[in-house]
Hints:
A six-stranded mixed sheet has the order 4-3-5-13-6-14, sandwiched between helices. Strands 8-12-7-11 form a four-stranded mixed sheet. It is an alpha/beta fold. Helix 1 packs across helix 3 and helix 1 (3-15) packs across helix 4 (59-85). The protein has helices spanning 3-15, 18-25, 29-43, 59-85, 99-116, 129-138, 185-188, 201-212, 226-234, 282-299, and strands spanning 48-51, 54-57, 91-97, 120-126, 143-147, 155-164, 166-170, 183-184, 192-195, 218-222, 240-242, 256-262, 267-275, 309-310. The chain contains ten helices and 14 strands.
Amino acid sequence: MDLxxxxxxxRVAELGSFTRAxxxxxxxxxxxxxxxxxxxxxxxxxxxxxxxxxxxxxEAGKVLLAHARGILHQVQRAREELGRVRGALAGRVxxxxxxxxxxxxxxxxxxxxxxxxxxxxxxxxxGLTVAMLDALTQGHLDLVLAYNPPPLPDITLQPLFDEPLAxxxxxxxxxxxxxxxxxxxxxxxxxxxxxxxxxxxxRVQVEAALAMLGLKPQVELExxxxxxxxxxVADGVGxxxxxxxxxxxxxxxxxxxxxxxxxPALHAHVMLACSDRRPATLTxxxxxxxxxxxxxxxxxxxxxxPSATSA
Length: 311
């Protein structure tokens, strides 16, 4: 067997589809199928079974998958160790950021990455917590900044910082609030709320906080996208509960106002998530250090409440 065959097999097994794997790898599907078949012939085992939804590993395939991940990881570590001998870390790091934080962190993170790791490649994706954690599990992302992530198998969580949530409303003409006046959480239950659908972490947190007051949110619309939520708030459709950073670089930022929540205040715990299925490479470890330093500089330390977790 060769490394390319192992890489192709791992990608098909993780994505559950020859078509998706071929697209991700940048190869045509017949070539991918031939390499997988050659690997099966060499090992004298069926490794993947096609079904109506794609492809899943056989029992033999599951055994090989565990070994193949380790082999590919060790090869990557060896390449990075050799790179370090000549004075540089290399490789690709794929980082997932929530949309609100991407507006604040993407540029400074890119600058810091290029300074510290000039021979490495950075990929930044935006997404909601649930989708990004799924991408982390499947190997599409290496590091994820997530809001209030739930404990998950094979995912390690490290606290980065705590961020207050705010009620985002359309700014009323002629009404100046400097600083914006706080809004009791109880009042939120009377307002038309534009909020992501379950199981979004923010949605769960808001519903739980209102339930403690014996209340339920008045959901006007469910939208799984921060930019779309802000557009609808600016259009007067309803209000939203978001991080104040969501307004940074928003298309209609001057038409919106973020008012702090009170009685009780709500805070999002921002965590750095990484997968235990693939131990971090040296380059990924360096990128994680950059993220922690940047967040500490901009947002301060997290509270003692959330602790690092490995489910």
